[in-house]
């Protein structure tokens, strides 16, 4: 039975007294937040222990989702919603003169990820538990998450994200579950008395991996799964190995900070050590659990599925081999067949610079036993497939090439499934990027189009819209987002269209006051809120968005009376600190904003707002207020995208290229309810083929492009001496790698179509409604169910949920 308001208030009073010896009238939001955290934890603790006891009793097969990034954001409201006590707590706090929102503001974002990959992992955690699937997350407990972004004079400045400053109320330190992880040194195989070969380690360094568990609550189903994040410590037994604090810090810093790159692997030693650290700790703890089941190791894959989220955890493969051979003395053949059946891999990007290739010397030096096993994995692959397949194919697909260890090759060859994250992306993997592997293992390749946790991105982020949905189609959509399609029946219902439009307007007013407070910029909620929120990357083409804005600017300079809706162009984007060009684009956007937002001739007709420190919580504030969703990457480059799904779910109309999941959004919403432009991926590849693209030619034939690009270098846009030149050079001197100038004209035409559509109020409201109605397709509940059926072969604990409700 859920807790009553009075029971909640009593619980809070008692715990506040216990923890801080004070009454509510003297308590700060920080203190009340921590007390609330302990009340909530106590509330789900039974379900947490019952859940894993049931998994053990039922010998339930479980999936372990290995990811070097998780991006939960804030967890308080999501936990309250999934426990079904959000309203009770809101009311109880109000009666104690506290506003839940003030406590939410206290909670720090858990930003242990860069962007799409990390957030997807967290959406999956929520969905796995909400679908009653036995699953666990395995990652790193960074002391510092993704940097805080500040704009200083329009430049991105990075500040440390000290998210653990006031402790983390949701984690439980599991000292007793700590394990040792070995690094460095030398390893040689010694023949033992029984003739078996055993590895002998010398001069290696042993570090302690201590797990911190966070509960992952299912949606009102009493299922509580676990997210295990590992933190490094110097083992007590090794104290004497460290002469100085510096010496210690060198190792204690292993899990100190998240690498802020989301598409460029730098081959840093600490990054490799991080990858091995959480992999070894995770696989060891899984094998420790499996031991409890007393099942033959050859049946491991009937009880354990390990998912490798991009290549960062690919060392799971040699680590499992190490444990099966070195600890359990299995033969290579048996070990490799078990490992391949247990492992599955997801690819999230086709960008060459993002595919990890570790230098052999670095791997050999940092992880000698891993390298020995990888070398053998490579040798046996070549031995097994040579003679069967064309030698060049084998040379192109083998793991070790030109002194580098190709992590994706190992993940594909020694796992039973490789999937892409959207239909187009998965097809490109099969036909282009990983074609050689598709030839070798066609049955392993499959697609699993991404999804989003609709509870967070609609019920929590947009309660006003959620209420209109309840009133209109009932509440079933909250349990099964497929029921959103019931809304289609109201596309002609003026009252419903108006209610949704009012909810959107209120969200825009809320965001307008946030913008005013944080940037000082005044924006009108009547304007079109045009939103592009994602990491700053050249292929995502935030610059193309800016080129269009500059055209609008010059059009209004030439003709201030020009027809057209007011527009607010909202950007949210962090650039990897080492990504100089991306940082130049941020500066140029901020200086254009300064120019346009203060130009009397423009008089507020168009505004640019670049909000600092884009993260999960800011996304939850921007997305409900969006009218237009910018998904304008060069076709073939964005594997899927997930902000596209979040904006669609909140009634934004998408302007998009046929890239990633935009294609599937178009398929489900229909050409009338989306605005498509630009080259297709086939045209992009044809352009590579013909290799005759000339950005300069397009520039010379386009007066508006000349005016815009010249403005970046002739002082029209001030304070971008260097950055403006860098932008113009990337387009004209280095021939515009992502075909911005080629897609410019059709993008401008698409934006004019958006303007016309927005002016037809009912038409726009209907498009907005149909985007919401069709967004249920992109629920991560459905996505994880497909992973469960096709890849992990795990089942929801049906009988469990039935029994408990
Ligand atoms: C080695 C540095 C590094 C770090 C992170 C390389 C690559 C990554 C990630 C794979 C990049 C990423 O986040 N990819 C995004 O994954 C999302 C979830 O599947 C997709 O929706 C995005 O299209 C894809 O860019």
Structural description of this entry:
It is an enzyme of class 2 (transferase). This is Alpha-1,4 glucan phosphorylase. It comes from Enterococcus diestrammenae. Belongs to the glycogen phosphorylase family. It is a single chain. The protein is of the alpha/beta class and 805 residues long. The chain has 33 helices and 25 strands. The chain is 49% helix and 15% strand. The strands form six sheets. Strands 1, 4, 7, 8, 11, 12, 13, 14, 18 and 19 form a ten-stranded mixed beta sheet that branches. α21 (542-558) links the parallel β20 (528-533) and β21 (567-572). α21 (542-558) packs across α28 (703-711). The longest helix has 29 residues, at 29-57. It starts with a helix and ends with a helix. The structure holds ligand 26W. Residues 114-117, 120, 261-265, 310, 348-349, 354, 356, 421, 450, 638-642, 660 line the site of ligand 26W. The site of ligand 26W has 23 residues, from α6.
What's a concise summary of this model?
By secondary structure, the chain is of the alpha/beta class. Helix content is 49%, strand content 15%. Among the domains are: 59-74 and 109-353, Glycogen Phosphorylase B (Rossmann fold, 3-Layer(aba) Sandwich), CATH 3.40.50; 493-677 and 737-773, Rossmann fold.
Features of the shown structure:
single chain, alpha/beta, Rossmann fold, 6-stranded parallel β-sheet, disordered C terminus, binds ligand 26W, transferase
